[in-house]
Specification:
Length: 215
């Protein structure tokens, strides 16, 4: 399988880690902003990342891609089958993909990505998102995180991966998530980042993050 996209993207990272957890070998090819190999350009007609190329099968959208991977390789189970746990997992993925990413992208894009694209950053918007939106997100997570440290079934699932991925990007350019105010949330993020599949993905993207964030 080929994954087209930029490794630092929370959506691309989600797919890469999901594949690693499933034992699926993937090749990551750089794509985005209208540039990429033929498989990306055909598989993602609206220029979104990631895109999947599996032989003659092309697909875009991280949720669609992990659904495909999960159907091909049901085990290990990252999307619970029990009705309530499954539904909550889908909610947490939506929460990460839309609520967290909406705020996180405002911060990460304006403090890191914009400069690389030679665009004028809106640092005031980033500051507002950090001050007004992220604390509400951290408050919510602090309230819902179980004592066991994982969002669903006391184990690592798609819920943790999807919800944490955009917060990881925020952490590259912000120190707003403090353990004294949000101890469970800070410990949860550290636990997600320490998972071997996630740690490997973060190590692979580290040079790109350094290039985006160095002054």
């Amino acid at each position: 399988m080929i994954i087209h996209g930029a490794r630092p993207s929370p959506f691309v990272r989600k797919v890469i880690v999901f594949a690693a957890e499933k034992g699926i070998d993937v090749e990551v090819r750089t794509a985005g902003f209208g540039r990429g190999a033929e498989g990306y350009l055909k598989g993602s007609p609206f220029g979104k990342i990631p895109a999947l190329e599996d032989g003659d099968f092309l697909l875009c959208n991280s949720t669609a891609i992990v659904t495909y991977m999960d159907a091909l390789h049901p085990e290990p189970n990252l999307i619970p089958t029990a009705p309530r746990a499954r539904a909550r997992t889908i909610w947490y993925e939506e929460f990460g993909d839309t609520v967290v990413q909406a705020a996180g992208q405002m911060i990460f894009f304006n403090r890191a990505v914009a400069r690389r694209l030679k665009r004028e950053p809106d640092l005031a918007a980033a500051d507002r998102a950090e001050a007004e939106k992220m604390p509400k997100i951290y408050d919510y997570l602090e309230d819902v995180l179980p004592d066991g440290g994982w969002l669903i079934e006391d184990r690592f699932t798609l819920a943790d991966l999807a919800a944490a991925s955009p917060i990881i990007n925020v952490g590259y350019v912000s120190d707003g998530l403090t353990a004294d105010r949000w101890p469970k949330t800070a410990a949860w993020i550290a636990r997600v980042k320490a998972r071997p599949s996630v740690a490997e993905a973060l190590a692979e993207e580290a040079p790109m993050i350094q290039a985006m964030t160095e002054k």
